[in-house]
């Protein structure tokens, strides 16, 4: 390992908290195969050819068979061409007048020309079929990865190891395509080699082992270089990921505002340069090592080639090889040498690509293992009650639980509000209710059935979620609203109702292409939206889903005051029409619309009741409510508890009060 790999630079330390390159220990932990014995690689060739054939067979049998037939034909034609060349030479070197010798050689010459044309035709046919096969195999590999990735449990998807593997696996989809190309080349190399070796053996048996001596050093060199590259890619993967992310940040329009106003650009650019300096040094190291290996392999191989020609000369001088056969042998030696080194190179590429494919296999296996279980007891009808009984949940890799011993009841047709300080566990609780995370302990039931026993797809089907970090999909206005129920995307009446619910109908009318306007700046015809407008689209989307449980996390954070009041009225109306609403908000005046309010503090429910009841109880909710209300009074303000600065401040207010009381 070089000192460059050991050193951690400022960019790594400051921006990412430490070294971004994988060491031996973590590679072992993550089961990344950094070392591959040479014999294992060679031994896997038949399995890899079979794997390539199976992948091709699954997507396009006709093209696969065409490639195989064309390659076998090509190899056979090459062998016949070589034998015919030998015949030509034999005829030309025979005794008698020149015109007679040329006449005698003519049929063999025609065979040489014919096989050359045939080889060209078969090469074109094979290339055509392989060209059809490769993109289909890549597409299948990529669909395989994505279809499994979208089923991974959210908690696992957030796990760094899973994320890393999924990103590595993306190389595997490209590798699947390349694997086909290299498999074809290996097949061709093997067939041509067998043909040429057979011709050589016919000419003189000693020529073949000598040839192997020339090819092996070069092949070994190629393999060493490729393994070094693979090892480097694996080690530097996180480095590549953060560099890509950093360059995206420097290019994208959203970070551009702070980048310019805070003059972050030059600083990040400096850090980016430091990172690229590291990777350039690694590239230089690889290039230098590759050149050294090539040189050593070339020298050994060159000496072996010299030896082969020397043996050929000796055989000729000693009369063990006729002149014509020596001529053919020279051709065959040249042909076979390049075939052999090409073959070894392609075997190596084949193996190298298979390692990436192996990453894809590992990612798919992990995704399967961590998938949301299919099946289970299906939910029928609309749930009458959701209940949490002593539910606790800790995020993967975190020491403290995000939710501790929470019990609550959400009957159908009610609005249940979750309030509390930042980080008190509201969003986590909402995601638990939605079935996105499973409790570590306690029971979460839908109509009495534990969520673990339920068919989670039927749970999701009943949920509409407006996430706190709601997504602005880079699609058309229509897709932005209908994405949760794409099968009803052209139900114009439903679309209109959702637009009215979220108050985007007026906005749609002003868009250049109405519902078909692309809501993404930076594309032709794309339209930008304000933060509040984006939030309205998220609300419209949740409404369009027409689900029985609506979970809205800070649904009005980006809305103006009038819209905020209106949205809370509409949310109340949703519950009145029989839906269940879980509402998370810091606007304590607005939770008046809730039937029950649960106040959370550090993952625990510390109070619950309706708005008036909680105010009358004079607890932490009442204190936080007063804190917010006082902000609207005239004159200089004095917060009741210094330091209670969060929007809701419920928990902080309660803790201050305890301190004061104590
Ligand atoms: N994906 C995550 N991975 C690890 N920890 C998380 C994750 N999301 C939240 N947390 C942690 O869990 C705790 C509860 O977070 P949560 O988002 O539920 O709080 P919240 O009450 O919704 O906060 P806010 O009012 O700021 O939205 C916090 O300590 C937070 O750091």
Automatic annotation (TrEMBL):
Signal peptide residue numbers: none
Q: Where in the cell is it found?
A: Cell membrane
MF GO annotations: ABC-type transporter activity; ATP binding; ATP hydrolysis activity; ATPase-coupled lipid transmembrane transporter activity
Segments carrying the region annotation (Disordered) are 632-662
Q: Name the coiled-coil region(s).
A: none
Q: What protein name applies here? A: ABC transporter ATP-binding protein/permease
Where is the sequence biased in composition, kind Low complexity? 642-653
What are the ABC transmembrane type-1 domain coordinates in residue numbering?
89-352
Q: Which InterPro entries match?
A: AAA+_ATPase, ABC1_TM_dom, ABC1_TM_sf, ABC_transporter-like_ATP-bd, P-loop_NTPase, Type_1_exporter
Q: Which Pfam families match?
A: ABC_tran
- SUPFAM superfamilies to which the protein is assigned, alphabetical: ABC transporter transmembrane region, P-loop containing nucleoside triphosphate hydrolases
User: Where is this protein chiefly located?
Assistant: membrane
> Which parts of the sequence belong to the ABC transporter domain?
386-627
Gene3D superfamilies on file: ABC transporter type 1, transmembrane domain (1.20.1560.10), P-loop containing nucleotide triphosphate hydrolases (3.40.50.300)
Query: Superkingdom of this entry's organism?
Result: Bacteria
What GO terms fall under cellular component here? Answer: plasma membrane
Bilayer topology term: Multi-pass membrane protein
Keywords, sorted A to Z: ATP-binding, Membrane, Nucleotide-binding, Transmembrane, Transmembrane helix
Instruction: Show the stretches that span the lipid bilayer.
Output: 109-130
